[in-house]
Amino acid sequence: MSPTRSPRDILVRIRGLKFYRGSRAIFDGVDIDIPRGGVTAIMGPSGTGKTTLLKLIGGQLTPDAGTIEVDGLNVHALSTRELYGLRMRMGMLFQSGALLTDLSVFENVAYPLREHTRLSQSMIRKMVLIKLEAVGLRGAHGLMPSQLSGGMARRVALARAIALDPMMIMYDEPFAGQDPISMGVLIQLVRRLNDAARISSVVVSHDVAEASQIADLIYVISDGRVIESGAPQQLREHGGEWTQQFMLGLPDGPVPFHYPAPDLATDLFGEPA
Amino acid sequence: MSKLRQLEILVGAFMATGFVALFFLAMNVSNLGAVHSGDSYKVLARFDNIGGLKVKSPVTMAGVEVGRVVDIYYDAQDFRAVAVLGIYSQFDQIPDDTFAKILTAGLLGEQYVGLDPGGSEQVLKDGGEIALTQSALVLEEVIGQFIFGKAQEGAQ
Amino acid sequence: MEWLAALGRAGLSFSARLGRANLLLVAMLRGLPELLRRPRLLIEQLFAVGVLTVLIIAVSGIFVGMVLGLQGYHILSRFGAEATLGVMVAASLVRELGPVVTALLFAGRAGSAMSAEIGLMKATEQLSGLEMMAVNPEHRVLTPRLIAGIISMPLLAALFSMLGVYGGWFVGVGLLGVDDGTYWAQMQSQIDWSEDVVNGVVKSFVFGIVCTWIAIFQGYDCVPTSEGVSRATTRTVVHSSLAVLGLDFVLTALMFN
User: What is the C-alpha separation between A92 and C169, in angstroms, rounded?
Assistant: First the structure.
């Protein structure tokens, strides 16, 4: 388990989280501590509700039980205005980038600045260009989202997410479907932003290799519960059976290869059903 | 010209066109254009049968509109219908022995009040009354009279 | 017994949808103060919803008016009443065809476009993105569209009626020989401002609210997949059309009894 930390070092504290969709338990009593200043990866098989977790942290969804505290504030006890204030300090990178399609790259990155600050046009322009420079797309500021490749769109979305210099960024499956070069770029960006700008990062992914490369701490989730947590190396070498199968990508183990079925001989040669 | 400017101009043109259309409907299609501005004075006329006369029906003299019917009510003392005619102020030379008839425009048209001027020296004033009136023709009575007349003829 | 349960479920789900639609309407109206501070959003939407619909409204108006002139003439001439062609064309348009046909065309053109756009924004997480940027998506994206639709509809209906009257004039007076003066004079004496024109405007105003509300709700509430968006646009057109025709009867009964 993670070493004890003082409360101030924990940016996001989740206790006893329960969330149901219909009768299915997406989260059934989950405790997570996301430390300040590092990259924390939340991993698990597809469909375990990892995106849901980010939405719960951001206050877009309300848990059925349990609490989520961000920077000491109970997210779901906040008023709308306070919640909006908190959101301005959190950046979120959606899987598809979620850029506003009718605005140019420049306008997209400038959007949060125009919304929430009273900076002059020239100040905003400078800041937008700086953010775009950080993700390497300053020259693309005049393009429209439809003209961008998937990887470029995500980088623009990242520039937008850091526009207000948030204290943390949440990444929703940032590595999904990327070519190796874009992947490399993204990995470097995540790590660089985290260290240089001291932004805490929460990465939700099922790409073990990439997430292991950048994460300081990994939580492995399955079936609505935390299976294990720890540093990537530690989990790979000393993790439980299930964790090892997941981290190493073994085809058979606690998660079986064969879907439950009757005996093969009976199926092939036995009485017809 | 910036894109926003173009947009604003087009939207402005759209709204203007819409309002022009509304204005057109008001003035050239509906009777608003013919609304008479100015004062009118009230004159009463009693009828045995009002027929299909309605409030806002026109009041004409020699075929020209000189006013509108302002109110219609039943006088329980008199057992007659009373029509209040609003005559436009500029027509203040109407003799007080004028004849008021309820007529129909065309065969199936709406009904209106037609005034036949008399020869009196006195003119109608506000609150005055037209004494000589002819009620609306009720189709069933006319047919009934006709049939009755024919029957009588036949009997003779 | 299975169908009974299914009926119950359908009823509950319908109720839920109706509830959500109403909550959305309230949320959108709450965004009015914010809209007044950002007139540009309204202007952009007036363009997308109003200006871009003008062409189909104009062309339809002219043709409907021309058909009314043609058919009207044939029927009225049997009674020797060609002189009342103007009244017939104008009354049909101002009271009924203007508001109703405009609303149907609006639902088909602007309503479906709105639903698709909003549904797509939902599917590509743009609405979610706005929320996470601490911007209220209902106020920022939906309210301008609602107000634009409500403003545009009466103006479009008036345009339709006006062009229809001219269309009827072109056919009746220009081609079929009805007297020009009679066409307009009869119309002007018979069509009442408050009873006919104003009632028509009130109708189109109501239709504007209903059609725009349905279009926005269907987009906002859709399943965020491509199939969901397509179903939402279909629903918009169908529900709007049925609502318009149904409300038309109710409003006509209330106004013209």
Answer: 61
